[in-house]
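help with this.
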Amino acid sequence: MTRKTSHLNVASLEVFLRLSVLPLCVASAVMVVQANDSSDEYGSVRFSNISGFKFLFSMDCIAASYAFASATLLLCRTQKRNPWVLFVLDQLVTYLMVTSSSAAAELLYLAYEGDREVSWSEVCSYFGRFCSRAKVSLFLHFVALFCFVCVSLLSAMRVLSAFGPPSAAGNQEREEAEK
Protein backbone atom coordinates (compact mmCIF):
# COMPACT_ATOMS: atom_id res chain seq x y z
CA MET A 1 0.00 0.00 0.00
CA THR A 2 1.43 3.35 -0.98
CA ARG A 3 1.63 6.35 1.29
CA LYS A 4 -0.98 8.22 -0.78
CA THR A 5 -3.46 5.32 -0.57
CA SER A 6 -2.89 5.05 3.17
CA HIS A 7 -3.47 8.80 3.60
CA LEU A 8 -6.67 8.55 1.56
CA ASN A 9 -7.96 5.70 3.76
CA VAL A 10 -7.24 7.66 6.94
CA ALA A 11 -8.92 10.77 5.51
CA SER A 12 -11.96 8.72 4.49
CA LEU A 13 -12.16 7.19 7.97
CA GLU A 14 -11.95 10.64 9.53
CA VAL A 15 -14.77 12.01 7.37
CA PHE A 16 -16.86 8.89 8.10
CA LEU A 17 -16.38 9.31 11.85
CA ARG A 18 -17.24 13.01 11.68
CA LEU A 19 -20.42 12.24 9.75
CA SER A 20 -21.27 9.41 12.17
CA VAL A 21 -21.33 11.92 15.02
CA LEU A 22 -24.10 13.88 13.35
CA PRO A 23 -27.00 11.38 13.72
CA LEU A 24 -25.77 10.25 17.13
CA CYS A 25 -25.79 13.78 18.53
CA VAL A 26 -29.12 14.64 16.92
CA ALA A 27 -30.70 11.48 18.35
CA SER A 28 -29.19 12.19 21.76
CA ALA A 29 -30.55 15.75 21.69
CA VAL A 30 -34.01 14.55 20.66
CA MET A 31 -34.06 11.96 23.45
CA VAL A 32 -32.99 14.41 26.13
CA VAL A 33 -35.58 16.96 24.99
CA GLN A 34 -38.25 14.25 25.24
CA ALA A 35 -37.13 13.39 28.78
CA ASN A 36 -40.20 14.72 30.55
CA ASP A 37 -42.23 12.98 33.20
CA SER A 38 -44.71 13.79 35.91
CA SER A 39 -46.00 12.18 39.05
CA ASP A 40 -49.14 12.99 41.02
CA GLU A 41 -47.12 12.86 44.23
CA TYR A 42 -43.96 14.70 43.20
CA GLY A 43 -44.88 16.99 40.31
CA SER A 44 -43.03 17.03 37.01
CA VAL A 45 -39.47 16.99 35.77
CA ARG A 46 -38.09 18.22 32.47
CA PHE A 47 -34.59 18.21 31.06
CA SER A 48 -34.63 22.01 31.11
CA ASN A 49 -34.95 21.95 34.91
CA ILE A 50 -31.56 20.26 35.28
CA SER A 51 -28.44 22.16 34.24
CA GLY A 52 -26.41 19.01 33.48
CA PHE A 53 -28.95 17.88 30.90
CA LYS A 54 -29.17 21.36 29.41
CA PHE A 55 -25.37 21.24 29.01
CA LEU A 56 -25.65 17.79 27.40
CA PHE A 57 -28.27 19.11 24.97
CA SER A 58 -26.15 22.17 24.14
CA MET A 59 -23.06 20.05 23.51
CA ASP A 60 -25.06 17.67 21.30
CA CYS A 61 -26.10 20.63 19.16
CA ILE A 62 -22.60 22.12 19.06
CA ALA A 63 -20.92 18.78 18.32
CA ALA A 64 -23.38 17.93 15.52
CA SER A 65 -22.92 21.34 13.91
CA TYR A 66 -19.15 21.18 14.23
CA ALA A 67 -19.00 17.60 12.89
CA PHE A 68 -20.98 18.61 9.82
CA ALA A 69 -18.93 21.75 9.20
CA SER A 70 -15.58 20.02 9.69
CA ALA A 71 -16.55 17.07 7.47
CA THR A 72 -17.59 19.55 4.79
CA LEU A 73 -14.25 21.35 5.10
CA LEU A 74 -12.36 18.08 4.77
CA LEU A 75 -14.42 16.97 1.80
CA CYS A 76 -13.84 20.30 0.07
CA ARG A 77 -10.13 20.07 0.96
CA THR A 78 -10.12 23.71 2.06
CA GLN A 79 -8.47 22.81 5.37
CA LYS A 80 -5.43 21.15 3.81
CA ARG A 81 -3.21 24.19 4.27
CA ASN A 82 -3.51 24.54 8.04
CA PRO A 83 -4.50 21.32 9.87
CA TRP A 84 -3.86 22.96 13.26
CA VAL A 85 -7.25 24.71 13.25
CA LEU A 86 -9.20 21.46 13.03
CA PHE A 87 -6.84 19.80 15.49
CA VAL A 88 -7.45 22.47 18.16
CA LEU A 89 -11.20 22.54 17.53
CA ASP A 90 -11.39 18.73 17.61
CA GLN A 91 -9.65 18.72 20.98
CA LEU A 92 -11.94 21.46 22.32
CA VAL A 93 -15.16 19.74 21.23
CA THR A 94 -13.95 16.38 22.54
CA TYR A 95 -13.10 17.80 25.96
CA LEU A 96 -16.41 19.65 26.18
CA MET A 97 -18.24 16.43 25.29
CA VAL A 98 -16.36 14.65 28.08
CA THR A 99 -17.45 17.26 30.60
CA SER A 100 -21.08 17.28 29.47
CA SER A 101 -21.33 13.49 29.48
CA SER A 102 -19.74 13.23 32.93
CA ALA A 103 -22.07 15.87 34.35
CA ALA A 104 -25.14 14.14 32.94
CA ALA A 105 -23.87 10.71 34.04
CA GLU A 106 -23.44 11.95 37.60
CA LEU A 107 -26.97 13.36 37.66
CA LEU A 108 -28.40 10.18 36.19
CA TYR A 109 -26.51 8.11 38.75
CA LEU A 110 -28.00 10.23 41.53
CA ALA A 111 -31.45 9.86 39.99
CA TYR A 112 -31.11 6.06 40.02
CA GLU A 113 -29.22 5.56 43.27
CA GLY A 114 -29.72 8.71 45.33
CA ASP A 115 -27.22 9.73 48.00
CA ARG A 116 -28.11 8.41 51.43
CA GLU A 117 -25.42 10.47 53.20
CA VAL A 118 -27.22 13.72 52.36
CA SER A 119 -30.71 12.19 52.47
CA TRP A 120 -31.36 12.31 48.72
CA SER A 121 -33.56 9.48 47.64
CA GLU A 122 -33.60 8.00 44.17
CA VAL A 123 -36.27 9.41 41.88
CA CYS A 124 -36.33 7.02 38.95
CA SER A 125 -39.01 4.89 40.58
CA TYR A 126 -41.27 7.98 40.36
CA PHE A 127 -39.98 9.42 37.09
CA GLY A 128 -39.15 6.26 35.12
CA ARG A 129 -39.87 7.71 31.69
CA PHE A 130 -37.54 10.63 32.35
CA CYS A 131 -34.74 8.36 33.56
CA SER A 132 -35.02 5.88 30.70
CA ARG A 133 -34.95 8.59 28.04
CA ALA A 134 -32.07 10.36 29.76
CA LYS A 135 -30.18 7.05 29.89
CA VAL A 136 -30.66 6.47 26.14
CA SER A 137 -29.59 10.05 25.42
CA LEU A 138 -26.48 9.63 27.54
CA PHE A 139 -25.60 6.34 25.81
CA LEU A 140 -25.87 7.96 22.37
CA HIS A 141 -23.78 10.87 23.60
CA PHE A 142 -21.07 8.47 24.82
CA VAL A 143 -20.99 6.74 21.42
CA ALA A 144 -20.63 10.14 19.74
CA LEU A 145 -17.88 10.98 22.25
CA PHE A 146 -16.04 7.78 21.30
CA CYS A 147 -16.24 8.83 17.63
CA PHE A 148 -14.84 12.26 18.54
CA VAL A 149 -11.99 10.70 20.51
CA CYS A 150 -11.09 8.71 17.39
CA VAL A 151 -11.39 11.86 15.27
CA SER A 152 -9.11 13.71 17.68
CA LEU A 153 -6.51 10.97 17.41
CA LEU A 154 -6.69 10.99 13.61
CA SER A 155 -6.48 14.77 13.61
CA ALA A 156 -3.42 14.66 15.86
CA MET A 157 -1.87 12.06 13.59
CA ARG A 158 -2.47 14.31 10.58
CA VAL A 159 -0.88 17.32 12.28
CA LEU A 160 2.07 15.49 13.79
CA SER A 161 2.86 13.50 10.65
CA ALA A 162 4.15 16.72 9.11
CA PHE A 163 7.08 16.53 11.51
CA GLY A 164 9.70 13.90 10.92
CA PRO A 165 11.50 11.94 13.60
CA PRO A 166 14.38 13.70 15.33
CA SER A 167 17.64 13.45 13.47
CA ALA A 168 20.67 11.66 14.84
CA ALA A 169 22.73 14.84 14.37
CA GLY A 170 20.34 16.74 16.63
CA ASN A 171 20.76 14.12 19.37
CA GLN A 172 24.56 14.30 19.12
CA GLU A 173 24.49 18.11 19.36
CA ARG A 174 22.25 17.91 22.45
CA GLU A 175 24.55 15.36 24.12
CA GLU A 176 27.61 17.53 23.44
CA ALA A 177 25.83 20.59 24.87
CA GLU A 178 24.98 18.68 28.05
CA LYS A 179 28.67 17.77 28.62
